[in-house]
Amino acid sequence: MLGYGMDQVLLRFRAEGPQFHPDIVVLNYVPMLAVRAEVRFTTWYKPHFVLDGDQLILQGVPVPSPAEVHRTFWLRPRLVDLVLFPFEEALYRAAGVPVAYVGHPLADATSDEDESAAAKEQLRLPAARKIVALMPGSRQSEVRYMAASLIQTAKLIAARQPAVHFLVPLVSRETRAIFEQAMYEAGAGDLPLTVLFGHARDAIAACDVALVASGTATLEAALARKPMVITYKMAQLTYGMMSKMGTLPWVGLPNIIAGEFLVPEILQDQATPENLAQAVLNSLNDPVVNRRLPERLDQIRRLLRRDTAARATEALLPWLQSA
Predict the structure, then answer these.
(1) How many helices (H) and strands (E) does the chain have?
(2) Where are the domains of the chain?
(3) Do residues 34 and 6 lie in contact, with contact meaning Cβ atoms separated by under 8 Å?
(4) Looking at domain 116-304, does it have CATH number 3.40.50.2000?
(5) What is the pTM of this model?
(6) Helices (H), 113-266
(7) Per residue in 253-267, pLDDT tens?
């Protein structure tokens, strides 16, 4: 949830958790929440208010570091963080926070086999065509920002590479309506394009390249060992704020995990249909990319495939036994 970080999760639990007398607490969050909680190294602060009688008292400026939170939190002796990515483990250990890297459950669900042919058959796609997955995101706001750009990009790709077919997985009737309205406004009714209700993993498995909004879908594409182009658009003010909070040169999970630009990232003002179309066509037709990139992405898959359930259980059992 935008604006709701781990600091607020801890504050809420501190207020409401004791009534449940838990022996152990498991907090589930996405990596960006840790960034939002640890904002003291930027010019952006995340204060909070407490109610004192009829007065609101400002506290938490600057927001304490994760290590400081752990030192002061009342459950500190029983607290351990379970992280899904290897780069998180090093950060937490450097901050003196108990941590266990458990891998990612999506990686555990992947197959060693190439599932492209089976996915194409399941979706009844033309065998002779190149398949491009267009993935504008799951939120309505994301689809509103991304739809027109992706549709114009698809028109350019289709004009330059006729033997192509597009897949657009959408998660809800609302996002589908937004996308189809953008199709109508763009006069793109003749595009060789199939809108899917859900089936994002099938679309990724079937595609030859994915044009994907930054988020979990980039990880899913990496785990399927698919070439991709990562893009994103948002409100200009929001983008400016997020840019000032950024501490890494990458935004896509595959690149963050690899520590390098494995796949292109084209964001905000640079995410023009021309730039996106050229990047997709390069990924689609470059034999070096099609040979080497799946191998590098498979290294990420194997790095994340750690039997998450077993590792999480192993990490939590000592805390339960000592409770």
Answers:
(1) 15, 10
(2) 6-103+306-322, 116-304
(3) yes
(4) yes
(5) 0.76
(6) 116-122, 140-160, 173-185, 200-206, 216-223, 236-245, 253-258
(7) 999 999 999 999 999
